[in-house]
Amino acid sequence: MPQTATPLLSVQGVTLRYRTKDHLVTATYRVSFDVYRSDRFVIVGPSGCGKSTLLKAVGGYLRAVEGQIKLNNQEIVKPGPDRVMVFQEFDQLLPWKTVKENVVFALTASGRLKGKAAEEKALHYIDKVNLSAFANSYPHILSGGMKQRVAIARGMAMEPDILLMDEPFAALDALTRAKMQDELLQLWDDTRFTVLFVTHSISEAVKIGSRILLLSPHPGRVRAELHSEGADTKAPDGRRLEERIEELLFKEAATQGGISHD
Ligand SMILES: Nc1ncnc2c1ncn2[C@@H]1O[C@H](COP(=O)(O)OP(=O)(O)OP(=O)(O)O)[C@@H](O)[C@H]1O
């Protein structure tokens, strides 16, 4: 995406804080980045660097104490159907509703669609995640990976401006995780949706992302922004992208008196 285009999502100088009983916790410090339409924008960084907090703020669940977050040039002040979140947990579905009903419910409850139109849209996206045969099944008979597929179908059926994914595959076994990553890329090839994806896995970031934002350890600051080809390609200096990211995240931080690589 040409960087002269207007960003879909603009995060400028954003500091995010939690107020606990005893003290203030700064989760991110003056973080800035822009996401353009059809970007697969991945935020990667060590545990506790504020990735989930950033996603919550983009979702409209947390206000910045400094800086601004804008979607389509409008400041984000509350949650909205233009941003849909997919989480890591498998219990995101309503257990008393079938796969189809779960997706339909999201569409009708948000006022997006109703009746036949909602059902058709739901079935379209259930098919996209290869779960047509399970449209009338209840969540308890599905595997973890299948439940995540339903959560993705539900998110995509809402046709949000941006899909927010918080470590959606982290709780899956390695093989299922790799398969789900491939499927997500296939879905992106089909529909070119915009996704903001959070992970602490460098290999996942390299595979999923077209653009990768590296955050430093707590409190999260922008360490670098990189482009990815969707594979672990070598840079002109011969280093693999994964190695380069590791170096930026850990070695350079360590030499600056930051953290060590555990
Ligand atoms: N509800 C909360 N109240 C107080 N502090 C919080 C709260 N949620 C998160 N934090 C703190 O904010 C910082 C950032 O947390 P966050 O969950 O955003 O990090 P993360 O990068 O997503 O980590 P992980 O990869 O482990 O999920 C951490 O220091 C965390 O302890």
From TrEMBL:
One of its GO terms (molecular function) is ATP hydrolysis activity. Belongs to the ABC transporter superfamily. Residues 9-244 form the ABC transporter domain. Keywords: ATP-binding, Cell membrane, Membrane, Nucleotide-binding, Transport. It comes from the Bacteria. This is NitT/TauT family transport system ATP-binding protein. The keyword Ligase does not apply. It comes from Paralcaligenes ureilyticus. SUPFAM superfamilies: P-loop containing nucleoside triphosphate hydrolases.
